[in-house]
Amino acid sequence: MASGRIRALGRLPEIDSYIRQKHGTSRPLTPEESAIMGAEVNAQLRVIRRNWPVETGTSRAGWFAGVQGDAGAVAIVYENPISYSGWITKKGQTPVREGGRPWFQRLVSEVFKANRQRLVRKMRAQIDKTEAKLQQAAQQGVD
């Protein structure tokens, strides 16, 4: 059964794993890494809003997303606090109250999957830059 408000998490374990591989342990995202993710999240949010059914526009305007950059728990958080958003289906679909699937489940999943490879590629490049800077700073501090 769907609830009205939406909170969906797009986990990115491959980014956590890459950080551990390069850094030697888990660490939170740096501001630069968060900015890369934030730009990708904003692009995803535009696609979600563009494909969201509209009657009044309230639930479309309610969408927001953010970056969770905690060590070992990198993810994208998609949210829509509008009380009925979780019940919305596209025109012609079976309503949720009759057993239909809420539109957000399919839409958010498809958008996340479509962008995932590019996001991971960009994040790996930024993680490499971050780690190079960290190594350089450590070497300068030792010399």
Q: H/E element string?
A: EHHHEEH
- Spatial sequence of strands, sheet with the most strands: 1-3-2
Structural class: mainly alpha
* Terminal Cα span: 61 Å
Give the C-alpha Rg: 18 Å
H/I helix tally: 4
How much beta, percentage-wise?
5-15%
What's the mean pLDDT score? 93
Shape: elongated
Low-confidence parts: none
Largest sheet: 3 strands, antiparallel
Share of helical residues: 40-55%
Count of strand segments: 3
What does this protein look like?
With 143 residues, this protein is mainly alpha-helical. Helices cover 52% and strands 12% of the residues. The chain has helices spanning 13-23, 31-50, 58-61, 103-142; strands at residues 6-11, 64-68, 75-80. The chain has a three-stranded antiparallel beta sheet. Helix 1 runs parallel beside helix 4. The relative contact order is 0.21.
